[in-house]
Design brief:
28% strand, 169 residues, alpha+beta, 3-stranded antiparallel sheet, 7-stranded mixed sheet, elongated, Ferric Hydroxamate Uptake Protein, Chain A, domain 1
Length: 169
Amino acid sequence: MKVILGIGIAVVLLLITSYFIFSPKMPSPVLSSLTPTPIIPDGVDRQATFAIFTNGTFRIFTDPRYHNKSQDVYIEENNPNVVQVKKSGVTWGDFFLTLPMKVTANCLTTGTGQEFCSNKTHTLKFYINGVPFSDVLSEEIKPQDKLLISYGPESDPDIENQLQKVPNL
């Protein structure tokens, strides 16, 4: 009886081992064989608006040289006052660096080369959401932000009107 039991256990063990050795195997997944999923940088998708006035003149950005200049932050042809932000940490300074113009704390140089620099009678002013900002270029662009850059007299009576002209989303 002990011999039959021993032979039975041996046969079962042999069958189990044979199953694992000779059964078809599923290929193990390899990361390099997987199709990569496109990733939106940081998963960020936000918008903000801006407007620039120089001596009361509203500057327009309909020229194609201003559109889609970066994957991280850009403006589009259909609404060139709406900033599309696709990466976290992007500042207003980063945005203006993508455009064919220059903005510093004291000067605005347009795409056509016109310069508007603070002097004794005129200043370059920055507002985010109606609040004056001296260091706007280092500010991260936040959802729904409204930036106004205005060059004109030190105490420009038209600022309130200009603030109202920054587009809403």
